[in-house]
Amino acid sequence: MVDNRYATALVIACVLSIIATVYLSVAVGTQHWYQYISPPVYGEANATELHVLQEEFMHGEFDEKTYSDSLFRLNGTVGLWWRCLQVPIEPHWYKEPDPKMVIDCVSFTLTQQFTPKYKEPGNHNSGEDMIRTYLWRCQFLLPLVSLGLVVLAGIIGFCACLCHSLAPTLGIGVLHLLAGLCTLATVCCFLAGMDLLHRVSMLPDRVDASLGWSLYLALISSPLHMMAAALLVWAARSHSQNYYRMTAYRVA
């Protein structure tokens, strides 16, 4: 028999866990982690240059400097798996005061996720930048680890429900705590990596950069997982202490 307090804590923890997992899943699958707002373009020469950048971005070989310059100049957004540009539909868009725009996206392949970063983006002779390389790999791997931990916790919790046991609750809480820490580490790695990128490749004039809503979703999911972990750990420990007291009372 489970006390109402513990049952309430478990239900709230489950709801928080589901919300946090949905938020993290949406954040991982979308590209709005970081976004750039580029100035309007005037003149055919600049428009031609930007069209070349767009073609290289969409169909050229993978190169950090190339896609970074395109993101800077063409209202780009970047996430963990996607990089996107906001480009005009019409060929003579620079002559129109308010051209219609469309978003073109390219995904990072698994091989590209593990491609080394260089001290000077685009210059392979400058030497590998180990810090940026491993920050990028961590921001790619850690959210997958976080989601895996939550799935594992869900499987254990489902089995515990079938067995009518609260014994695994403490372990499930620890898994949620680790998931929250992994998500928080993902956000930290991403922000640190973007800061280092901006240091080695300066932003063009009049280009503004800001955090996107996908990053905020991931940032919100971290404390939600930790709150769920706190409730699960409290329920497990309180129920265990109450059980031992009842056992000692019966023995006495």
From TrEMBL:
The keyword Membrane applies. Pfam families: Claudin_2. GO terms for cellular component: membrane. It is found in: Membrane. It is a multi-pass membrane protein. The chain crosses the membrane at residues 6-28, 140-167, 173-194, 215-236. It comes from Coilia grayii (Gray's grenadier anchovy). The lineage of its organism: Eukaryota, Metazoa, Chordata, Craniata, Vertebrata. This is Claudin domain-containing protein 1. Signal peptide: none annotated. Keywords: Membrane, Transmembrane, Transmembrane helix. The keyword Transport does not apply.
